[in-house]
Amino acid sequence: MSLVVYLAALVFGTTSVLLFRRPRTAMRNPLTLSTCAAIVLGALVLVCAAPATLATVNDLTGVPNFGAPLTYGMLCAYSCAVLVLLINWRGGPRERVRRLVLRSMAAYGLLAVAIVVLFALADAPTERLTDLDTYYAGTPFMREMILLYLLGHSAAMLVMCAVCVKWGREVGGLLRAGLRLILLGALLDVVGFQLTKYTAVVARWSGHDLDFLSTTVAPPMASLAALLCSAGFLLPRLLPPVVAHWRGLGDYRRLEPLWTLVRSVSTAPKPPAAWWQLPQARLQWREVSIHDALLTLAPYFDHRVRERVRDTALRAGRSPHEARLAAEAAMLTDAARRAAAREEPPETAGSYRLHATEVSGPSGLVELARALDRPPVGGTASGGAVPPSRTTPPMAEPEEPHVA
Question: Of 69, 105, 138, 274, which is most buried with the most CB atoms under 10 A?
Answer without folding.
Answer: 69
